[in-house]
Amino acid sequence: MTEDAGTDADDACAWAERLGWAFGLIAEDPAARGAAFVHLAEAQRKATNAVARSREMWRLTQPLGADEQYRDPAFQQALQRQWQAQRHSLPDGVWNRPVGGDLATWPGLPYALLFLEWEARYPLEWTQHAKAWGTKQSLIREVARACQEEAIKAKLTDLVELVVHRAYRCKDREYVRVARAVDSADLRGRLERAADSDSPWARCHARYVLWLLDRPDLPNTCRVWQTWVAGEAASLL
After folding, report:
1. What is the 3-state secondary structure (H, E, C) of 14-59?
2. Computed from CA positions of residues 124, 128, 129, 135, in that sequence, does the dihedral angle turn out positive or negative?
3. pLDDT per residue over 2-43, tens digit each?
């Protein structure tokens, strides 16, 4: 494998070497999570510095013209170092994903799922340290279309359950795609329990997802959501 191979071409060992530390972000052990945050801060510092250096080299080589600029060795080296630094950090490390193909066999999938689980379990920490709503949205959409193995389906089912139990956050509506992709008796049982829980957020979210699971052809748009909410409110009168 060459140094400039795409992230989708890397094997599981390469991914683990770059981002294996990130699993500490969702660890139950506070010490492990603390160590992961230290690692993340350092990785983000290096990435920020590398971006600043490549921008500086872009400014210095701009007089060469577009064609010559991107052939300039110093500028190419700065871009390469930026790319390498970003691949060791979050959210940057999960940005480059394969186009098409079977995501279930993509070695970066565990890290995409990790990024989503971190946001689901520790939303405030995720927002403080690695907020990237567009990344969250695209990852949810992509894992929903992955050919699901049982282990992946179980992880995605857990994510849907986590999300319906909390107050709505940006892009959470995308998890309906996941629920439809992994629809099962297990998922519906969890949603039904959430729909009967004491949490108003859980009741609302779970009932809406269940309603859409029974209507697979209905788009999950804001208008559909508003119509459903209005119907729920009317039923309580």
Report:
1. HHHHHHHHHHHHHCCCHHHHHHHHHHHHHHHHHHHHHHHHHHHHHH
2. positive
3. 334 444 568 899 999 999 999 999 999 999 999 999 999 999
Taking Cα atoms as reference points, which of 178, 146, 149 lies closest to residue 161? 178
pLDDT digits (tens, 9 = 90+) for 158-187: 999 999 999 999 999 999 999 999 999 999
What are the tens digits of pLDDT across the range 89-137? 999 999 877 666 677 788 999 999 999 999 999 999 999 999 999 999 9
pTM greater than 0.85 (yes/no): yes
Three-state DSSP state, 216: coil
- Half-sphere exposure (Cβ direction) of 111: Cα atoms closer than 13 Å: 30
Are the CB atoms for 162 and 197 separated by under 8 Å? no
DSSP calls for the chain: --TT--GGG--HHHHHHHHGGGGGGG-SSHHHHHHHHHHHHHHHHHHHHHHHHHHHHHHHHGGG-HHHHTT-HHHHHHHHHHHHHHHTSTTGGGS---SSS-GGG-TTHHHHHHHHHHHHH-HHHHHHHH--HHHHHHHHHHHHHSPPPHHHHHHHHHHHHHHHTS---TTGGGHHHHHHHT--HHHHHHHHHHHTSS-HHHHHHHHHHHHHHT-TTS---HHHHHHHHHHHHHHT-
